[in-house]
């Protein structure tokens, strides 16, 4: 039975010092611990411990380095959220445009176009909840003007209300006979429908970590994106091996690949490199970064 009792902030500081973490200023440490929970910060000092059972820290482990890791991770998530927003808006636009023209404005309700009916039911159920919850005037006005039409509002209204995760699932669930599936993949430099679904799923997962303020630094990521052997657009020469896909680097590369198409004159490389310069105590290997990653053709295309 779990019987641990809560500790005060001063007790937390005493415990960290006893375990070998250098804390120069107790007041500063107390301030941070009053705004960032001990348990959350523990995810950042875990790698500093030589004995993870007894929670004993390695020599020269400092509380300020823990805070630096935490701040680096926070700024990284803000940077990635901005990049993913551009990818999300682009994907939403392409799905609405191509499929509405190829099929109809209500293509997302057409079960004949999708492989997995159960998955589509879940997606539509989630979309229905979003539409019922929204305060968006376009949706309210649509229902008022077309109260006898029991369908969802058309794609250009409905899909503006749904999440990146739902959009990626809609795309991945489309049958391969739907022409727009390949058209969209080609426009993103993914050649055909084989590769793009796994890229989108990977980015959607990272978006969720960013949105829920979960740790990205030194995290093992789920997902297994399929990589092209010879992408049509600038890519990386030093490609991560399969076992390295759990680290963030390959996923960062996919985001940059998208962004170079969506916003050719972007500053993603500069901003990411700047983060590592700002926080020199952060080990790039914890994210799976390759040596001289910033000199790769993918990352030098600004």
Plain-language structure description:
The structure is a single chain. With 302 residues, the chain is mainly alpha-helical. It folds into two domains: 53 residues, no CATH class; 232 residues, no CATH class. The chain is built from 13 helices and two strands. A two-stranded antiparallel ribbon has the order 1-2. Strand 1 and strand 2 form a beta hairpin. Helix 4 packs across helix 11. The longest helix has 40 residues. The radius of gyration is 23 Å and the shape is globular. The termini are far apart. The model has no long low-confidence stretch (mean pLDDT 94).
Question: Structural class from helices and strands?
Answer: mainly alpha
The chain-level mean pLDDT equals 94
In the sheet with the most strands, the strands line up as 1-2
Query: β content, as a range?
Result: under 5%
Largest sheet: 2 strands, antiparallel
Distance between the termini: 56 Å
Number of helices: 13
Q: Please mark out the parts with pLDDT under 50 across 5 or more consecutive residues, or reply none.
A: none
Shape: globular
Rg measurement, Å:
23 Å
Oligomer: single chain
**Helix-strand string:** HHHEEHHHHHHHHHH
Helix content: 40-55%
Task: Give me the count of strands.
Answer: 2
Count of discrete structural domains: 2
